[in-house]
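Students often ask why we bother encoding 3D structure as a string. The short answer is that it lets us treat folding as translation between two languages. Here is a chain of 294 residues written in the first language.
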Amino acid sequence: MKRVLFSADDFGLSLAVNEGIERAHRDGILSTASLMVAGKAAGDAVARARRLPDLRVGLHLVTIEGPAALPQAEIPALLDRDGSFPSDQMRLGLRYAFRPEARRQLAREIEAQFDAFAATGLRLDHANAHKHMHLHPTIGRMLVQTGLRHGLPALRVPSEPAGPLGEADTAASRALRLWTRLLRRQAQHAGLAVNDNCFGLAWSGHMTADRVRHLVPRLPDGFSEIYFHPASRRDRLLDRLMPTYEHQAELAALCDPDLPELLRRNGVVPVTWRDATARPPGSVAGMATLLAGR
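And here it is in the second language, the structure alphabet:
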């Protein structure tokens, strides 16, 4: 059976993003959004989510290129002078792996982001990380540990097969798929639901209607997630952070009136995390190990 989840990242980043996500849910096929709890428009995003009871909302954990939940004075080893996470993925990865103080502060920040989500009163549907930083073993482990304490049911594994895209399977894409196995094992060992496949990496910011129409008939069996970055318009923040992304084209793809019939014709069932897969029972010993941080 082919099942697909249509999701959007960066909920709370800006009003334009929030407007795009609301429109994609009301007028399109979007079922799920991932919230940046410290984003400039997070309060607006939460208010919209409360008006949209069928929109499933999870945590979009930020540990790179974005705002933190804690003040700079509490996590100085993590943030730039402006109080934001820097954009240098390699430098951050090494810091998180080899600096004990940075890891201690990272654990507190991840806890704070889950606490901030809980404070919204929204039901925690899933989690993932900005720029997929949860592929870093330290962040992945902390996200799972903390998520378990907060009732986290599901986690995105960004494993994208090249075949359905119709593009060459490069050494880099093969290496990334191999690397995702560690995150998948961490999540499954903890009893979290995970997707089989994820689409949106190679075409990040460019998941246009034409590409969605190409992808749907080629989706593999199992549970696939396709994630988007919709927005109603350009704004200064999007221009600075994602200058090449086609936010409005991705919104149009989610609102494509022909998409529901295309899914039906190809035997693809739209789902959410809750009805896509039951939460596996998990190992009690495995959960205890993760919670103990060993």
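Translate back mentally: The longest helix spans residues 100-119. Keep this in mind for the problem set.
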